[in-house]
Amino acid sequence: MANAKTEKELHRIFDATLLLKGIHATVELIGGLLLYIASADSITRVVDFFVKGEINEDPHDVIANYILMLGHSLGGSSKAFAALYLASHGVVNGLVTLGLWKEKMWAYPISLAVIMGFIAYQLYLLAFGYSLWLVVLTVLDVAILLLAWHEYRLLKMRKALTL
Questions:
Q1: Structural domain boundaries of the chain?
Q2: Which residues have CB under 8 Å from 106's CB, separation 6+?
């Protein structure tokens, strides 16, 4: 009985991660579209609006200065690339998440491959510099990978029993 309870709890955790991943995919897609239609001047003004107060309070704030620099550097091809990256990442994540939510067998191997690719890329980036945000994302991706693998195995067994 404890095993059934554990499986039910793991499935609820998996569903919660899918919900968060779906929200994240939607935010990425909307962010990519907004970035694409926004002018470089608009981006600069929005970044300035949100960061100026922090910079005035602490001119050496690393995060605020990084955001300011990033906002001012988004123009031309870098803005187009960032918009395309965000939007396409959101679409891929959204489709895979939807497939997992509907327990489509094709979605599991694809999601495992995509997540492993993200983990590999994040580890590559971490090799060049520490980022707490990147460490947290990588740990979450590893957890999602393990949960997806577990769910995939259970779904395969369930489908085999119903044949």
A1: 17-95, 103-163
A2: 99
